[in-house]
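Why this split exists: single-chain examples teach little about how molecules sit against one another. For that reason, every record in the complexes split bundles all components of an assembly together and asks for one structure covering all of them. Below is a record exactly as it appears in the raw files.
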Amino acid sequence: MEAVIFFLAAIGAVVGAIGVVASRNPFYSVLALVAHLFSLAVLFLLLTAAFVAAAQVVVYAGAVMVLYVFVVAYVGSTHEPTFDPIPGQRLFTFLLAFFLFVEISAAVLSSALKALGTHGPDVPAGFGNPAAIGNLLLEEFLVPFEASSVLLLIAAVGAIVLANRKRQAGGGATPSGRPFGAECPEGITPPPAPRSGDPVVSSGHSSAAGASGGQHGIPALAKQNPGSAQ
Amino acid sequence: MAGEGFVAPHVDYAALAPLIALTVGLIVILMSGVFETTKRWAPGLAVLTLGATAGLLIWHWNEQIDLVAGALRIDDLAISISLIATVTAFFTVLLSVRERAAEEAGQGEYYALLIGSVLGMVLLAEAENLVTFFVALETLSIPLYILCATNLRRERSLESGLKYLIVGSLGSATLLYGMAFVYGATGSTDFAGIAHGIAAKGMLHDPLLLIGIALAAVGLAFKTSIAPFHQWTPDVYQGAPTPITSFMAVATKAAAFAVFVRFFVVALGPETGDWQTGLAILAAISIVVGNVGALRQTSLKRLLGYSGVAQAGYMLGGIVVASEKGISSLVFYLAAYLFMNLAAFAVIVARERETPYGDDIRGVRGLGAERPALAWSLTISMLALAGLPATAGFIGKLYLIEALVEGNYLWLAVFIAVGTMISLAYYLRVVAAMWMTPGQAVAGGPGGPEPTPVISGASPEVDPVDPRAGTRWYLVAPAVLAAAITVFFGVIPQPLVEFASHAGASLF
């Protein structure tokens, strides 16, 4: 039974991961990522890591994915022009990726294959269950736990700094309150608006940016997108 | 263990005091940004916070305490690096007075982010555990990503922030991946536990551990901008607001080197011989790439970026030998680097505001006749970075080379010497531009001979020109002070040597 579930989840994880990079439509990529993350959660459950599995589903498959879907929905599936700024760069990338793959395979196989016949590492009972993790966070990892809260505060402040810039630029200059879809359909370069030179930088903080400067920030992101081929 | 209730770890509040001071300062500064009347106090509050932190750090000088269940360790290495970060932040506050980035981001937010980054650095210098290490590194980096982009109306600044975010996140991810492997191989996240695991099992027979260390080293090399992981450095340095560039160049490097030392010398200490050669090769590549890359730069910030890559290579030499002397020479060099670099950056800030050329080398033409105080500061800084005698840079290099020779890395010492010779070419070019080209009417504002500022690119608004920026006390004083300290420690190095050797001795 355990083996069957393992292989089902493992195949799901691999197929999902391939789907993320292989599909051309970003929306399918996001869906494939959800499938991948759910399969990973099942694998974590098999390892009796209930907390990690739950966090995986709630945080990644839930919250982060919703964010991705929002971004994809706003930005749309415009086709990014792909070109190589440095000739031969793509080949070089494949080469490096291949070497990294070999390297990590060597590490994982050499240590994991040896452990196949055994019953795994010796860990105390309850290792990795939610209660144990809670204890760890308040005992051994108290400082990083507290530091993370400061880190989150700083990140929130940063997101506000980046999202707030329009207001300081002067009230009249903002393209305020216009629904994005009505103004700029997908793939068409929008007319140059005031301040269109300012791209939205915060990508990891867009949730906070959306909260305070949503109507201003998101059109800027969309406008930046067709023009800025990296 | 599960469900049995927990045993609260012992918390030594006295030893945590510097961290507490920074956190309180961060929140007070943030709150000060709320009211119109208190907004102006933010720089003063930042200085106050930094002063309190420095005082509390010095209070713990010569102590060696493990804090809060082995998450942190206060020792002279941590304190000396934290002091370097604090002093750099103090200079940055001065350079940020009337800086456009600070006004656009909001005074409270700008200085709060700066203090947040210092908090991350102090945490990182004290980190003795992989988890603390990572959280501290992020606490250091995330405010910097944002600070780089705070000059919200310049495209270069936004580009710089975005680039730094992407590259920095890649570095963090690599590092985290490596840490997971290291934990998997040794079964511990404490540096002491990792050292114990390695001592028991050896290192070369375990591919999992080797790859973990390699990935962690790559992540750290990203943060310290060691070649070939340096490509972001010139772009980010050039685009970021100059006070932030100076902060990044010095303080980030110092904090990242502190944890580099702790991770390699403490956690991987039992197998020193296995990683020395790898790091030595990285150092050599860095010295060559940085010095050759700097030769063709016309932007002073890019030039200092590449020079920073080369200097990181020199400093890595101190870790390579993994001896008390090596670490001491690294700390000495970092302290000297602080003053050498800040003198240069203070002059660049002044010229950026004064001339329409931005940080282009044309901005310092004829500086010798026009603003002798600034010109002397920049000259001393350039000569010190090049390692000329009677400056702290010379003593620093001498000290590093001595450590390398004692540690049987003569070839790396030769690299440092050759790199220094190459570096003279670009440092002296700046000096020549100041003293040997005739002054132009650069201070005339945007109506000067070449009204299009090279730096502004596609910026919707040209940066305002302050024709008297070169005489403002908050720019001239840091430049002159930093240059004077550079010369002072070049002539009388003893106090700084003592400071650095305490740091080195705390690990062995």
